[in-house]
Amino acid sequence: MTQSNPSLGIRQLLDLQKQAFIAQGPVSAELRVQRLQQVIDMLVECKDALCEAMGEDFGGRPAVFSLANDILGSLSSLKHARDHFRDWMGDSERPSVKPFDMFGATAWVKYQPKGVIGIIGTWNAPLFTLLSPLACAFAAGNRAVLKTSEIAPRTAQVLADAVARRFDPQVLAVVQGGPEVAAEFSGQPWDHLVFTGSTAVGKLIMAAAAKNLVPVTLELGGKSPVLVGNSADVANAAERIAVGKALNSGQLCVAPDVVWVHESRLQALAEAIAARYREMYPTVSGNADMTPVVNERHHARVSAYVNDAKARGVTVVEVGSAAAGVDRRLPLALVIDPPPEAEISRHEIFGPAMVLRSFQDIREAVAAINEGERPLALYYFGSDEAEQNWVLDHSLSGGVSINDVVMHPALEDAPFGGVGASGMGHYHGREGFLEFSHARSVYKAGNHDPRREWGMLPPYNAQFEQM
Ligand code: NAD
């Protein structure tokens, strides 16, 4: 294990931060702004080194994407939290304190920082998955320890060095390492634990957290579906789906995974997606605009899903071809109506492949989606508002984008999170602030307590019953 403060273990960092948190008492708005601003300044100062590191970790991820997704995405969360948390942090008066108002009582809810937040990030968005939740954690007045992903080690090191230069480890620290470090990390008595990663590992993290009754925010994955209604413009839907799928070569938790469309329009949609993808990426191997698959294991995994479908006789449209042994860039594979038992039907793809499925009636597609695990994102294309509302009312997912894909997680003022197998809890906006705050109910008694004269206290008499 390495970290920004190599002499301190995970438990020592937690204890250090907890003691400092208790010793400090209330965390002023000014101090919260100062901490958020420190992270903002750090990101601005280190953006080139961080983008370079992300590029190297992926074996050639375009700096434009790293800048947009991880640097600007994190800055957006940090600035939004900095500029709005004062609207969220004030006490909430509860004037309706019946029946205690009879006693002259008042009540309010006070939002207090929980204390020390552990945040475990992933490699596909190695800064965003740490710093976007951190924005809400700091806004709520907490301290934090970040655990980076072992699959993005260069980014982890640049971040750890930058944090160590700018922050006292009593406030913010970075821990690096693989699954064994993550296991140790998730077994600590944090005041709250955030995990971003796969559903399978999320279960291990929640089980470890349960041993200490640590509340968790789980930002997991799943097979995010797209529904292309009959009222949708196929060219527009294809444009948005192709562009959204191209981001990070599909290595995005909200990447479109399965696209549902009426059987009469499936071929046109597949051709339009392929044409738009080819326009963005006329070549595959060596194309500096295309993000490679992050490592050999994931390259083999995505390739195996596609090869399994081919071996089953499923139609697969590959948009371009990769030269063997050059790099880990893969062409987009459109896999048409694979059977449920195919590998690609059973697993989150998380790479440059996508399933296209046909329906005769969109309600069949919604029924099929509802039979599976609840997805992180759901997308609907169409101009038919009645159908749009029907889809929204009859499905459940972490979030939704309409007539686009991948966009809603960028909303800073709306909660980002999953439901069911795609996770629990949120960050972003007021809901994110609340996630990392303890909502503490306060009751203040009035000067006069009438319970005795009303006969509500022993020794009881019939007086109260007669009232
Ligand atoms: P992962 O679950 O393999 O790893 C994530 C983290 O868990 C890493 O820090 C890793 O060190 C740790 N880890 C791995 N194995 C572990 C174990 N056995 N015990 C304890 N910790 C362990 O996920 P990944 O491959 O890094 O990321 C891909 C997944 O993350 C996809 O499912 C994707 O959808 C999801 N994701 C979700 C979001 C979101 O916001 N909901 C964002 C990005 C990625």
Automatic annotation (TrEMBL):
The family database entries (SUPFAM superfamilies) matched by this protein are listed as: ALDH-like (SSF53720)
Locate the active site: 219
Ranges of residues in domain Aldehyde dehydrogenase = 19-442
Would you say which domain of life the source belongs to? Bacteria
Pfam families assigned: Aldedh (PF00171)
Q: Which UniProt keywords apply?
A: NAD, Oxidoreductase
Q: Does the keyword Oxidoreductase apply?
A: yes
Family, according to the entry, reads as follows: Belongs to the aldehyde dehydrogenase family.
The protein's name in its UniProt record = Aldehyde dehydrogenase
Organism name: Comamonas guangdongensis
